[in-house]
Write a structure and sequence with these properties.
Length: 308
Amino acid sequence: MDKITSMNVFVDVVEQGGFTPAAAKQGISRAAASKHIIQLEKHLGAKLLNRTTRRVDITDQGRAYYDHCKQILSQIEEAESLISGEETRPEGVLRVNVPMTLGGRRLNQLICDYARSCPEVKIDLGFGDRPLSIEEEGYDLAIRSGEEPDSTGNWKKISSLGFLVCASPVYLTHAGEPWEPHELAEHNCLTANLSPEKTTWILKDRLNKTQEVKVSGNFASDNCEAIRQAAINHLGIALLPRYMIDDDLRRTRLKQVVPSWSVPEQGIYAIYPRRHILSPKVQTLVNLFQTRLGDSPEWNRRLYGVVS
């Protein structure tokens, strides 16, 4: 049995929705396509497809096997193209996963620019904040922010993520303005969620001496946009990424508090499968992110009448 050919036939049956169109794509007879699947199921000892006279449905085991086949066949194609020197430009399907807020507000524009400059690449863009098993889930690239990734794939830092402690001028007028980190404990602080580590804020002075402060308040969320809206609506003090509040600072909807103290930056990381060869479609997009974002993006550096 030619396992690679059988895997290709199986993928085509799933994607084309039946044996006849898959056989036509492969340039073989319907009977030959069916034989490939029968041999594959016999070899695996598992049923991959449920066949009726009208339709072909993939089984749960078939779905899992399909995902792995797509990844394996893609890697084979990339390796062959690179070794033969045929692939001189990015092409093929590029599955990317980006954080919900950072992706929507900042990265999606860059990905659109990439798609325009690389028309032979088909972008499959997903959004999410959960940790990914990038190889098992079949992604070519994931972008995550925060601490260094604890990942089975390879990763590299592509930029940095700045944060700011902020509140609306209306809130500060009524509640008073804190100037030292310990004063934050006396305010209604809007936290990322209810877990203990997210209610401890770390700030540093100009000598990089850090101070931790335990904060609390009547509003917590796992969505940064919800926290931003709560801050704009005068509910309390928030710790938010600078890229989210850049326009709010400019329009004075929000104002930096404890301005003599800053928040340690975190990283923005590109995570990709552990391969010896990084495909041009992935490398090109990672390079674009690095070039356009830089070590410290513009939104991390802009100031609007505040001390940083």
